[in-house]
Amino acid sequence: MEWTTQLEAVWATAIGMVLGGLVGLERELKDRPAGFRTHMLVAGAAALLVGIGRLALADDGLFANTSGQLRIDPLRMVEAVIAGVAFIGAGTIFARRGGDTIAGITTAASLLMVAVVGLAAGFHYYVLAAAATLLTLLVLMLLNLCDRLLKRSAKGGG
């Protein structure tokens, strides 16, 4: 296998990491349990797993039997990413002692989202990955602003 093909997987991983880092930066600035580095690594790992899957499919004989039929489903890499992110996301959700408050759900959801962004980058769907990152940032920042404004107006007697 040519090294240039492997560099494409590295490039896709880098794009996934940058896009995941943008979401992670927003989480970091809000002092959430998982921040910049965590989001970068989750998105990068997702993109790299897809890249490995793409390389393996292109590698003659690695996944096909002698009749040329596929022996495994390469989309199982996607399942592995989601299972791994679910484990990490569960670690970011915690209940506060002495109360009914649960924290970290939005961060866990953002980790899932950057994993999917990484998957999109790994499949070389760069426009989709960038658009999903933008939408995620809009949800995290704009809806947070709306939430604060609504709470402020409710306290002000409205």
Rg from C-alpha positions? 19 Å
Oligomer: single chain
Helicity range of the residues?
over 70%
Largest sheet: 2 strands, antiparallel
Helix tally equals: 5
Cα distance spanning the termini: 66 Å
Q: Work out the count of structural domains.
A: 1
Taken as a percent bin, the fraction of beta residues is under 5%
Anisotropy-based shape: elongated
* Strand element count: 2
Integer average pLDDT: 84
Strand order of the largest sheet: 1-2
Which structural class do the helices and strands define?
mainly alpha
Order of helix and strand elements from N to C terminus: HHHEEHH
Low-confidence stretches: none
Please name the defining characteristics of this protein.
elongated, membrane, two-stranded antiparallel ribbon, Protein MgtC, cell inner membrane, transmembrane helix, 158 residues, single chain, mainly alpha, transmembrane, 5 helices, 73% helix
Structure description:
It is a multi-pass membrane protein. Residues 15-146 form the MgtC/SapB/SrpB/YhiD N-terminal domain. Pfam families: MgtC. The chain crosses the membrane at residues 6-25, 37-57, 77-95, 102-120, 126-146. It is found in: Cell inner membrane; Cell membrane. The chain contains 5 helices and 2 strands, in the order αααββαα. The chain is mainly alpha-helical and 158 residues long. The chain has one domain (3-155). It has a two-stranded antiparallel sheet. Helix 1 runs parallel beside helix 5 (126-155). The N and C termini lie far apart (66 Å). The model has no long low-confidence stretch (mean pLDDT 84).
